[in-house]
Amino acid sequence: MSEGEDKEGDSLNLLELIEEKADNFRYYLRLSGVSAIARRYFIMNAFDGAVTILGVLIGALIGGGLSPRIILAAGIGAGIAMGVSGFFGAYLAEEAERSRSLRELERAMHINLNNSIIEKAARVAALTAALIDAVSPLMAALISLTPFMIAIIGLISAWQALISSIALILVLLAVLGLFLGKISGERMIIYSIATTCAGLITGFLGLFLHVIFSW
Amino acid sequence: MSEEVRIKRIVIDVLKPREISIIDLSRALCEAYGADNVSIVVKEVDAKTETVSIVITGTDVDYEDIVETIDEYGCAIRSVDEIEVYKSSEKGTK
Fold first, then answer.
1. Where are the domains of chain A?
2. I need a labelling partner for A197 at 20 to 30 A (CA). Which of A68, A117, B22, B44 fits?
3. Tens digit of pLDDT for each residue in A87-97?
4. What is the torsion angle, in degrees rounded to the nearest 10, for the CA atoms of residue A69, residue A70, residue A75 and residue A79?
5. What angle do CA A136, A137, A138 make, to 5 degrees?
6. Under a CB-based contact definition with an 8 Å cutoff, are residues B66 and B57 in contact?
7. ipTM attached to this prediction
8. Binding-site residues on chain B for chain A (CB distance < 8 A)
9. How far apart are the two ends of chain A, measured CA to CA in Å?
10. Are A128 and A27 in contact (CB under 8 A)?
């Protein structure tokens, strides 16, 4: 066999291996039923991320420091903190829950389930939930902060960035609500209004902060 | 000419977690060496487990391979209920 054919065979084997791993991964996800949990985590934490950035913006506005640099740094810092806390929180909680149900199953079956597909699926589920829990708030924070990234380049002013950022957050919250409505299969608008209201409530509570600070 | 005893049909009683579907389990068992046909019947359903009867037929069913797959899927063999073997003069290709 020539060297070229050899290399082609190797890449084919690699492709087959990747395909096999992807199939296993999909099977583990299906077996562990993590998709529904992951969906929940995604929405809950993206929601957290967006509302937190709204809080940072209102805080900066009341504090009088509307510097795009500081807002961006504080916002990304909060996003990273939510990501790290999300990862560890979700991983440890999922791992604890799943290892408890695994031990219960082991007791019911009188066998050791280590290295079985069920145990592997539980590990994959905990890790997937943790990754989604980590990425979703960070992603929501970064999307919400996009206007301030543009402001740093100097294309828009800090005020324009603030207004577009708040608008972006409200749109993001509305989209998350629509997504929730789609999952429930009904009342998409109601869910969307409810999530947007959470943003508006944050804004109103921010006004109280303003009253306290101006005292 | 050396002759080899091979398994033609085996019926095993297995306890499996409810999460594992019999469709996935039967597919995995049918991929075992020498298995041509697999049928599974659910006999009993509990809160977390199911007792199933698995019938595997083929020209040279590899019992070790079957046990390995059953372990991998987190199932436990409770008993071997039926077995049918035959003598073959052909050499196995395993």
1. 31-214
2. A68
3. 999 999 999 99
4. 90
5. 90
6. no
7. 0.80
8. 15, 17, 19-20, 24, 46-49, 71-74, 76
9. 84
10. no
